[in-house]
Prior knowledge:
Oligomer: single chain
Helix content: 40-55%
Radius of gyration: 14 Å
Strand order of the largest sheet: 1-2
Structural class: alpha+beta
Shape: flat
Number of strands: 2
Amino acid sequence: AKLFFEFRAMNAAMREAAAKISMPTLVLHGGGDVVSSPVGSERWIRTAPAGLAELRLYPGLYHEILNEPEGPRIAGEIAEWLKPRIS
């Protein structure tokens, strides 16, 4: 029971923190993830300041998207997303 309540508290803290982000944030989530629902990432993105957070859902992929066969392509997408944002 303690683990359940700890997860709920962390979930609430993460949603609250989303509203306070001040730098571009990329959230990646497997659409078939059964460990953590993509709905949580979608809610987090909606809470973040407009234009600062981007969500990419990968339909059919699971929890560890970089360990899926599409992992190298996704790693490339991450690198491309980072390039214009790093100095």
